[in-house]
Specification:
With 227 residues, the protein is mostly helical. The protein contains three helices and two strands, in the order αββαα. It is rod-shaped and about 210 Å long.
């Protein structure tokens, strides 16, 4: 909306445009003094009021600008405070994350060390058990071999002794009955030899069976120890 001063200026401009030029001139015009004085007087009287109004507007503008500046400063401070808070929270979160990661890594490393130590101990125990089982089997093997050898030697000596006694008995009987008992003595000697051979085969088979049984028992016990 235009002010009254602007309206008066436009009216003066329109009035000048409507005035007629003076005779023999293209730059001078003829004006009505009363009309132009009235317009100028009103313009003069209106000027202080307009100036006051503009001063008030300017004053209000400065107040508005000051208020806007204060609000802007407050918003800037608030934004800066919020930004600082976010930075601090981010720093705290970053530190917490780094500490948590370090704890997890330490726990993982300790777990790996514990597992490795347990595996090493298990392998060492396994080796010790295998060595103990092998030593035990070797001892039992030596005992069985020695026992079998002693038994065979004892039985052979005992059988030889019996055969010698039998031969003496047969000789004595032959002296008593030289004609009758020659063939019988030979048959008895052959039968005794056959019985001795059969007995030796049976005893050998029994020894093998007993050895297999002992080895089976020892094998089961060894497996139980290893398990």
């Amino acid at each position: 909306m235009a002010s009254r001063i602007e309206q008066i200026i436009e009216e003066i401009q329109d009035y000048i445009d409507e005035c007629k030029y003076s005779t023999f001139s293209s730059t001078k015009i003829l004006v009505n003094k009363e009309e132009i004085d009235e317009l100028l007087h009103e313009l003069k009287s209106r000027t202080p009021d307009e100036i006051k109004r503009y001063q008030k507007i300017i004053s209000n503008k400065e107040a508005i600008m000051d208020d806007a500046k204060q609000k802007a400063d407050a918003l800037i401070k608030q934004a800066q405070s919020y930004s600082d808070q976010m930075v601090n929270e981010h720093t705290i979160m970053q530190q917490a994350y780094e500490q948590a990661s370090e704890v997890v890594n330490q726990a993982r490393q300790q777990a790996q060390e514990i597992v490795a130590s347990a595996n090493a101990q298990a392998e060492q125990i396994q080796v010790s058990i295998m060595q103990y089982a092998d030593d035990t089997l070797a001892t039992i093997q030596n005992l069985l071999s020695h026992s079998i050898t002693e038994t065979q030697e004892h039985d052979a000596a005992f059988i030889n002794s019996l055969n010698q006694i039998l031969m003496v008995v047969n000789s004595n009987r032959a002296e008593l009955h030289p004609e009758e008992d020659l063939a019988q003595n030979e048959a008895i000697a052959d039968r005794a030899e056959a019985e001795r051979t059969a007995r030796a085969e049976v005893e050998e088979a029994q020894d093998v069976s007993e050895t297999d049984n002992v080895e089976g028992i020892v094998g089961d016990e060894t497996l139980n120890v290893i398990r």
